[in-house]
Each structure stands twice: as structure tokens, then as C-alpha cells.
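pinned: reference chain
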Amino acid sequence: FFFLFFLFLLFFFPPEINDGEGHPSSSHQTLKGTSKWATSLENLLEDPEGVKRFREFLKKEFSEENVLFWLACEEFKKTQGKKQMQEKAKEIYMTFLSSKASSQVNVEGQSRLSETILETPHPLMFQKLQDQIFNLMKYDSYSRFLKSDIFLNHKKSEEQEENSAEAQTAAKRASRIYNT
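pinned: its C-alpha cells
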């Protein structure tokens, strides 16, 4: 029985393989930075640095309000208490959805919310609109971002840092070998 349990654990939780420095070997490393951003918009939006670079790009395209609205909706979902929800809902409405909004997002007209719904807010009240904006970014801005100078320059500097770190690690290994 214990042997089967042990095999089960090995199969579902394989031991991590480390290089000589105690770091996971390259085959077990997860993607980081621009490599992870390039796999999906979701991954990009989970990384604060990715959001910063994407905002910088969208600002140049005059559509930064899209990611700001998406982020505001994500934050809104975490809001506790009716009073706080009412305040944040009104802020989102006035900033992004009202006809007089300072940073109006481009959502389908029939999807717009009326101000009356702001009195009884709920965490997912902006979900349909947020999904529209997400899809707009995913199928429009995101692909252009991945080809932009902002993304490509950041990727290049990331690769240079990585190569420099690898060279330093190799030098440390060599010095240990020769100093023993």
C-alpha cells in the first residue's frame, strides 16, 4: 500500500530538478516577463510590469481608457460593503460609461448602464462591459502591442539581463572548479 502511495505521489508531484546553484533546471522554469506576456493577454494583465508597458502602449494609441476600465472593474469585484460598492460603481460609471465620462470606453450602446442600477450594485454588474473591453483589447490592441517598440525593447533588455546573469553564474561555477 505504501509503495503504491509513493508511486502516486511521484507521478502527480514529481521532485523538482535543480541545477548546481539550487535553482530549478531550465526545463522546469516557468515563463517570466515578456515571454509570459506573449502567451496571453490574461498573463500580461496579471503582471504589474506588463500592465505598465501595455498602458504606455495604449496611451500612444489613445485607448488607455480600455485597460484602466478593465482594471477598475477587477478592483470593483473585490469591494466589500454596499456603501463602498455604490461609491466605486458611481466612480466607474462617471469615469468610463456616462455620456459625459472623462475617459469614455467604447462599448455597445445597448450595453450601457443607467444610473439607477448604481443604487443596488453587485460585484459582477460591469462584467458584460468588462468582457467587451477585454475582447476589444485581446483581438485588437494586444497583437499590435506584441509587435510594438515598447514590447520589443523591453524583451531585448530582459534578454540582455538574462544573458548577463547566466554569464555571471558560469563564471562563479568556473571559479569554484578552479579554486578547489
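why pinned: The chain is about 65% helix and 0% strand. Residues 3 and 11 are 12 Å apart (CA to CA).
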